[in-house]
Amino acid sequence: MVLGLTLPGERRGRDGGSSAERAGAASRAAPGAAPAAQAAKAGATPAASASGTASPSASASAPIPAAAPAAVAAKANELGQVPVLMYHRILKKPELSLDRSTKELYDELTRLAKDGYYPITAAEFTGGRFAVPAGRHPVVLTFDDSTPGHFALDAQGNPKPDTAVAIIEQVARENPGFRPVATFYLNKDLFGMDDVQAAAGLKWLQQHGFEIGNHTMTHPSLAGMSEKGVRKEIGGMEDEIVQLTGTHTTTFAYPFGSVPKKAAWAEKDGGRYSFQGMFLAGWRPALSPFDDDFDRWKIDRIRSEGKIKENDCKKYCSTAWLDYLDKHPDERYTSDGDPNTVTFPKAAEDRLAKEYRDRARTY
Questions:
Q1: Euclidean distance between the first and final Cα of the chain, in Å?
Q2: Among 44, 41, 43, which Cα is nearest to 207's?
Q3: What is the chain's alpha carbon radius of gyration, rounded to the nearest angstrom?
Q4: Residues 40 and 196: beta-carbon distance below 8 Å
């Protein structure tokens, strides 16, 4: 049983990340789950939105313009919740509690496609400017530990069958309009590849719209570590990624959801690394990046799992949350189709972060 979790529908307020860290401790129950590299498109956040904020030019007292008719017809609510799904090893036959089978991944992604979800990267979500078709719902697919089941290339340079990337692309082919992107949070063991393979593989992922994120070198709990240890773990991984790809990462995922004594140690280290968003270990949907309570340094994720008893997945894992959002569509983020506006029902106006008021539209 995981303590300190938030019940469906209880979304206001923050607990400083402690409950997410306790929930993330469930990851420690999977001995032998080797940390691994993950792939994602670094730098996916537009420069204008890299800070996660918009221009605060609009007066706080000025009336918000009316929403476009198409946005109203789509019942847009861009202050709704966004599922950020957290995956670990992908295997044909799961062995540990955090593993998901290739069929389970295929089935969950197919459900997302049928339910109108549209994948975006973690960097795009954090930046707060992403293009999702009107009436669709953003979802962020994140894969931790860069294990071999996430990604590999065959002799022809295509993703190997039964890897997460191949399954994502298969679901996209079968469901036109389902965007084949995800964020891979990397550890030193990059998908079980050698340096030559890893360099080619990471570049392939970037070229195909996937995001590469930082997940430390050896996947330790950063809680209780010294500043030097934290910076060595994160900076060492960033150095590896830059050496292989020539680019820095935009987002970071805490191993086990454990935040160090001073979060600033993980957020930035001069020119060595400087993240725009930090992701926890989950158990509830993330707030909209336009919500006044959104904290880009502590973004919630949801473990991918069915409604099982373990770790209270009957309420807090992906199947349960997706069921909940299906039954409560007014709480889910629904796009207005325009990345330059933020549309929502007028009753939710008090939740809008003031820096986004100049982009706001209501109905």
A1: 42
A2: 41
A3: 19
A4: no
Cross-strand partners of 91 = 101
Give one DSSP letter per residue of 198-241, joined into a string.
HHHHHHHHHHTT-EEEE--SS----TT--HHHHHHHHHHHHHHH
Q: Distances from the Cα of 120 to the Cαs of 44, 49, 111, 136, 300, in angstroms?
A: 10, 15, 16, 12, 15
Q: Mapping DSSP to helix (H, G, I), strand (E, B) and coil, where does residue 303 land?
A: strand
Assign domain 18-55+81-335 to a CATH class. alpha beta
> What are the tens digits of pLDDT across the range 131-178?
999 999 999 999 999 999 999 999 999 999 999 999 999 999 999 999
Task: Report CA 346 to chain centroid distance, whole Å.
Answer: 28
Q: Could you tell me where the DSSP H helices lie in the chain?
A: 18-24, 69-73, 102-114, 122-127, 164-174, 195-207, 227-245, 264-267, 313-316, 318-327
Instruction: Give CA–CA dist 263/278, Å, rounded.
Output: 10
Spell out a b/e string for 23-41, using b for 16 or more CB atoms within 10 Å of the CB, else e: bbbbbeeeeebebbbbbbb
Identify the sign of the CA torsion 210, 211, 212, 215: negative
pLDDT digits (tens, 9 = 90+) for 63-94: 999 999 999 999 999 999 999 999 999 999 99
**Structural contact between residues 297 and 265, judged by C-beta atoms closer than 8 angstroms:** no
Give the rounded distance of the alpha carbon of 320 from its chain centre.
Answer: 18
**Could you state, in order of their start, the residue ranges of all structural domains in the chain?**
18-55+81-335
How many residues make up the chain in this entry? 363
pTM assigned to the model: 0.86
CA dist 226 and 361 (Å) reads 46
d(CA 91, CA 78): 35
